[in-house]
């Protein structure tokens, strides 16, 4: 039986950071187990490869939600990264921390040391901000380069001008903790290439003899002595079962779907569910797999005029020119995020900060087709509720580790989510119809001008909305006195020794942001907790 100090399950954003930090002084040995393969394919490093990777199944878990009553019985595909680097190797590359209030709420829920000011040093530690920003809140020396958009399109400029015309100012830095405003997204793209968590954190760690990565493995069970976790059983690439022992701890960093599933199959979860599956109960924890949350985005499209958009740049005859620009490390349509601009708006003027989010890109996809560009100039505007109140679950459906679990985020179940989504769609429409955009705006193509009432817009949202790919919350952090929680504020699983969960699943609530940045900060703090290092300071 092989032995390491730490066994990390999952080479996604959190797992990559943990592998790096836990081996910085080479005193500890770490083995990282990843279900997917290596991240060597060129589509991963090319930002525009996003459209090829997310739904291909080659680099992702093809999860799908259970049919949802709030969506009229519709199921939604919710792919998650299954490759070294996890979702950071296939996602939209937006760097967005969220609002100060997001994390202060975590602390108010009984999680000591998890407010915004507590997490700020961990956001800064990993960040290498290449651009303007207040050094009191931005990092300059970390492993992860954060850059500004260098490909500017007239439609996007006009869209932001239209937002300003509605009283929504350009944001100086939406990653400062305050979001209200509009602007271009910052991203982890450098010299035209994606910088995933694997590129920034794992590869440097693998150059140390103390770190080992094993890919294409299927975790079967946690090895336990009573309530103490001592190792992991897994199937390797050939299907053979192997056991690896942890001297100190096993750390689950497999994401909001797979981390609770692994716990459940190991007998850590809701007694009723485990009994139904014939799984012996090792630690009764009713909260495992509950509290699943995700952003739900509803996208409107419009035809553009008098301008070239992504639709034209990304196909013949202009695409070869864009490829040449990318190869020459010049601004190119190949090196941008799928979404480039935002409006963080308010549903009521008296609010302290934004409570709705609008996403913008100067391009559009054909209705009913996955990432197939329209054959005319287009633009896309999406609306989302940044802090959804709707929540659901992840539950194993059998004792077979190869079976996908049931995934149910209950999109739009909460009335607040419906109200904020409607407010976002109406604000998006108002911006599109502003005079600042009139030179380029031709007509709305989806849902179309016939959809006007709240009921009609909400029906459109139910029928056409999609995942934000931001699944969190299924191993909720909180005091053991709350039976809905799974880990304490040091990320230790309640009632179990030598086992932590460190990934997006521990988030008590979904931050008003893409989840990559906060997951990195969680892993940075988690590494300090494991090592017994005092809280970081700015």
Features:
2 domains; seven-stranded antiparallel β-sheet; 14 helices; Cholesterol Oxidase, domain 2; alpha/beta; seven-stranded mixed β-sheet; single chain; 538 residues; FAD/NAD(P)-binding domain
**What is the rounded Rg?**
22 Å
Q: How does the major sheet shape up? A: 7 strands, mixed
CATH class of the largest domain: Alpha Beta
Backbone structural class: alpha/beta
* Percent of sequence in beta strands: 15-25%
CATH homology-level superfamily of the largest domain: FAD/NAD(P)-binding domain
Query: In the residues, how many domains can be counted?
Result: 2
CATH architecture of the largest domain: 3-Layer(bba) Sandwich
Shape: globular
User: What level of helicity do the residues show?
Assistant: 25-40%
Mean pLDDT level: 97
Separation of termini?
A: 42 Å
What is the number of helices? 14
Description:
The protein has 538 residues and is an alpha/beta fold. The protein folds into 2 domains: 1-146 and 193-293 and 390-401 and 470-538, 3-Layer(bba) Sandwich (FAD/NAD(P)-binding domain), CATH 3.50.50.60; 150-184 and 296-384 and 412-464, Cholesterol Oxidase, domain 2. It contains 14 helices and 25 strands. The strands form 7 sheets. Strands 1, 2, 10, 11, 12, 13 and 25 form a 7-stranded mixed sheet that branches. It starts with a strand and ends in a 7-residue tail after the last helix.
